[in-house]
Design brief:
The complex is a heterodimer of chains A (490) and B (428). Chain A has 490 residues and is mainly alpha-helical. Chain A is built from 19 helices and 2 strands. Helix content of chain A is 73%, strand content 3%. Chain B has one domain. The longest helix of chain B has 36 residues. Classes of the chains: A mainly alpha (490), B mainly alpha (428). Chains A and B meet through loops of A and loops of B.
């Protein structure tokens, strides 16, 4: 049941690359829509009573190496798969005016969709690595061809960092498999608990750095601001919305789930790194003059919440971590989408130049209104998904790490500070006569933002509609973590 | 020989514009595009203006001191038929050849069906703001009332015993048989006098615009007939109009029952140019007041000048967007003009910025351009009246003219002035 999620985008990518532009674009949209529809179907078939891997598919592939075609999903990966398909559809409709080489552009986006879906579904470590690395080249090309002024520099930096990330993850996986003398690279076959604590810690640290680069966590984040700023809005939606989530997904799936004992040992350190990321991201965002860079730094802060919650390892905090991944993916995608519209329309991202965009006649009133709402969601205003996710993160983490959690709560106030700065400078005030000859933003350019906004509001009012899919997986996951703690103490 | 050859060129920051004025030009650059825009907007302005002057006179003459004037904007047929003194076959002072004496057909059509193009009870059109917005005209009237000391003798007369005596008779006649209002008048006579002074300014502005409406219609007709080729042509027409109408009377009559009460008789000799046109330009084009809008002014932070003569919120300084911000024209005038734009101006706006979506802003800026041209006409008329011809052979006289022009341009040195903006065709 999961193979269509790979086949649809990959075949779509090939078809899009060879068909005429008039046909290729609807086909690309149709591919992503079909993926999304298939995931919705999977949701209807998903067993909410089970925390195990579901819809498993297994085919032997390169047996001598241990590489098998092994797929499966659970409450951790299924919502992320839905996010992946949704953001692919959004990215296909982001700022398409005057877009050149559309077939290549759309083909690469579909390829990324397939790659990320594959990584999220892989139950074989080598298969995961293949998909994990698969999207690097499409992203590199998207940044390098459709990016901004310093796109070459940003693309190369992105490739170098993420290649190192991939390398470390490979080393970590090989080490884990060989050290644990597992018969294959199948996730379910790995018996890491038999290892001594020291090798576990070494292997976990390697994976943490590998996935930490991708997330990114401070101090491994330096590729991210440049890449997010230089990439086109469509690419940034995917980068921030789902690509970075592979990092946190990896931390939870291969860090917390494979190394519960070692995880518990280093958890205080992880909480500190997460808190530093949160504070650093917020303070750096306040200092920015470029609205896209500001949103990029805000992302570092919000990914820090996920690490703090994962480190805390309580049932509620892990639930919050996954919810925060989804919430952040939606909110960040909306923010980057809207910043893309502002940049495209006004020709600038400079806070000192932009003003008065709420002007009903010459401004961008709907874009501004949605930007305000996205800022509110990111700042954790009640009624929006950001609040629900952050509240669960804080509540779940407080008992385990009270001081880091309190610092995170204080930093969430800083989120409000930089979003108030952003909104106040860009949306309010007087529209400048000398600059305000902006083209009108049509409804067709804005509907993806409206869709994202509707989801953000819906999950904000009904967080259970999201959490109910995640909870069956987090409960056994945390139970296993706690049993390993008891074993460690004994 | 041009002025600059007889005396050294000006070193004023607006030297180029001063030299243009000395050559008989306008502050607005002479381009075909500018000419088309300003004539088009004069026509669009003239139609609501035809309503403004009639209703201003109706309020001043008939509504008078009605304590609950809910229906003061519901112009009776009598005032729609009121013949304009300066237009049509029956004009007692016919200045131009064209134009109707009664209300303009486009105005009547709009009043009948409004923007909705549907005949509904008048009250519905009114509450829906699907009507001519008299609020703009009243704002202009208040600006004239409030900014005093702009020359002329009109306001001084409103303080005179003679005027108060006239008011007293009219007030008592109006409230005859109404002991409550007469009692209030007895207790607070100044309140009633002040209200009547305001009504005298209603009459003043109504009489001013009674002249201007046919002038603008005439300009539009002449442009359509190909008689205007340049911006200075349009300006010269206005200068001539100013001189022709200069001596026309400004008065205030009130009709109570069958009786006419002359609060300000024609015989007082208040002239259109000095008591209406010049104060209007000063109060409305230059000064007005910091309007309520999206930009707020903090008087305590000295964002509003202490001296009224330093006010600079008129159309010549106005930032026409965001809509509803400081200065004339507020949104309501732009909305009024929008209904009567000639087709060529609509086509023109559709080519730029957001086309129909931001036509209000575009026409607001065109209106600003056109009012710079009107102000140029006033400046040239004053120069003609008070100083020397532009082709005067005496360099000393030309220097006096230069000083006059430079003094006028000094008023546009403040950063809010849009004089620099209108030099550029891309300012829309």
């Amino acid at each position: 049941m999961l193979t269509p999620l790979l086949l649809i985008p990959l075949l779509g990518a090939i078809a899009v690359a060879f068909l005429k532009p008039q046909i290729s674009r609807p086909l690309a949209a149709l591919s992503s829509l079909a993926s999304l529809a298939w995931i919705i179907y999977l949701f209807t078939q998903f067993n909410l009573q089970s925390g195990a891997i579901q819809f498993s598919e297994f085919h032997r592939w390169v047996e001598p190496v241990g590489l098998n075609y092994s797929l499966g999903v659970d409450g951790l990966s299924l919502p992320l798969l839905a996010l992946n398909s949704l953001l692919t559809l959004i990215a296909l409709y982001t700022n398409r005016n005057n877009l050149e080489r559309t077939r290549l552009h759309d083909g690469l986006i579909l390829l990324i969709n397939g790659g990320i879906a594959g990584a999220l579904m892989s139950q074989n470590l080598l298969l995961f690595i293949i998909f994990y690395e698969l999207e690097l080249i499409p992203f590199y090309l998207l940044i390098n061809i459709w990016g901004g002024e310093k796109r070459g520099y940003a693309a190369t930096k992105f490739l170098l960092y993420t290649a190192v990330s991939g390398l470390l993850v490979i080393v970590g996986f090989l080490g884990t498999t060989f050290a644990s003398q597992s018969p294959s690279f199948e996730f379910t076959d790995l018996q890491v608990q038999n290892l001594d604590l020291i090798p576990q810690l070494v292997l976990l640290t390697i994976l943490l750095i590998g996935f930490g680069i991708k997330t990114p966590l401070v101090p491994l984040h330096t590729w991210m601001p440049d890449t997010y700023v230089e990439a086109s809005p469509a690419t940034t939606v995917l980068l921030g919305g789902i690509f970075a989530k592979l990092g946190t997904y990896g931390l939870l799936r291969f860090g917390l789930q494979l190394f519960p004992t070692a995880w518990q040992t280093i958890a205080p350190g992880l909480a500190i790194i997460g808190t530093v990321s949160v504070i650093y991201g917020a303070i750096s965002a306040i200092a920015q003059r470029d609205i896209k860079r500001m949103v990029a730094y805000s992302s570092i802060g919000h990914m820090g919440y996920i690490l703090v919650a994962a480190a805390a390892g309580t049932e509620l905090s892990v639930l919050g971590a996954i919810a925060q991944m989804i919430a952040h993916g939606l909110i960040l995608a909306l923010l980057f989408f809207l910043v893309g519209i502002v940049e495209k329309t006004t020709g600038t991202r400079d806070l000192d130049i932009l003003n008065g965009l709420m002007n009903p006649i010459r401004g961008l009133p709907l874009t501004s209104a949605l930007l305000i709402l996205a800022g509110m969601a990111s700042a954790g205003i009640p009624g929006l998904i950001g609040f629900a996710a952050e509240f669960i993160v804080f509540q779940g983490s407080f008992m385990a790490f009270p001081i880091p959690t309190l610092l995170c709560i204080l930093s969430s106030g800083l989120t409000a500070v930089y979003f108030v700065i952003l909104i106040n400078r860009t949306c309010f005030g007087k529209l400048d006569n000398s600059r305000a000859y902006y083209a009108r933003v049509s409804f067709s350019q804005q509907w993806p933002a409206l869709v994202l906004t509707a989801i953000i509001i819906y999950f904000g009012l009904q967080p259970n509609a999201l959490l109910r899919w995640i909870e069956p997986t987090t409960t056994p996951l945390v139970a296993e973590l706690h049993s390993s703690i008891i074993a460690l103490r004994e | 020989m041009t002025t600059t050859l007889k005396i050294p060129p000006s070193t004023h920051p607006y030297a180029e514009i001063i030299h243009r004025l000395e050559a008989g030009g306008s502050m607005l650059p002479d381009t075909e595009e500018n000419l088309m825009q300003i004539i088009g907007i004069y026509k669009a302005y003239a139609v609501p203006m035809d309503f403004y002057w009639r209703d201003l006179l109706y309020i001043a003459e008939r509504v008078f001191l009605d304590p609950l004037p809910f229906f003061k904007y519901f112009l009776p047929q009598e005032y729609l038929d009121l013949p304009n003194h300066y237009a049509g076959e029956t004009a007692d002072f016919r200045v131009w050849q064209k134009g109707e004496a009664s209300a303009h057909p486009e105005l009547l059509e709009f009043m009948d069906k409004g923007e909705l193009k549907k005949k509904l009870p008048k009250l519905f059109h009114h509450l829906w703001h699907d009507r001519i917005n008299m609020e703009f005209a009243e704002a202009c009237m208040r600006a004239m009332l409030w900014h005093q000391g702009m020359g002329g003798l009109f306001y001084d007369y409103l303080e005179s015993e003679e005027y108060l005596g006239n008011c007293d008779r009219a007030i008592k006649a109006y409230f005859k048989g109404n002991p409550l209002m007469l009692g209030l008048y007895k207790l607070f006579p100044e309140m009633f006098y002040e209200k009547v002074r305001e009504l005298s300014y209603y009459a003043n502005l109504g009489l001013f615009w009674e002249v201007m409406a046919p002038v603008f219609f005439e300009m539009s007709d002449r442009y359509d007939a190909g008689e205007f080729k340049t911006v200075p042509d349009a300006m010269d027409f206005l200068v001539n109009g100013i001189f022709i109408a200069a001596g026309r009377p400004i008065y205030h009559h009130v009709y109570i029952g069958d009786q006419c009460y002359e609060l300000i008789p024609k015989s007082k000799g208040f002239m259109w140019l000095y008591e209406a046109a010049l104060p209007y330009v000063e109060a409305v084009f230059y000064r007005t007041a910091p309007f309520r809008g999206t930009k707020s002014y903090n008087a305590q932070a000295q964002q509003v000048p202490a001296d009224q003569k330093d006010f600079h919120y008129g159309i010549l300084y106005a930032d026409v967007f965001p809509v509803g911000t400081a200065g004339i024209p507020p949104t309501l005038l732009m909305q009024d003009m929008l209904h009567f734009l000639p087709p060529y101006l609509v086509d023109y706006y559709q080519q730029y910025c957001r086309g129909e979506d931001d036509m209000l802003i575009q026409l607001g800026i065109t209106f600003q351009r056109s009012m710079y041209n009107v102000t140029s006409a006033v400046i040239q008329a004053l120069r003609t009246a008070l100083l020397y011809p532009l082709d005067d052979p005496n360099p000393e006289h030309l220097r006096k003219n230069r000083q006059f022009f430079e003094a006028q341009m000094d008023r546009f040195l403040r950063p809010e002035a849009r004089l620099n903006d209108i030099q550029n065709q891309d300012y829309r």
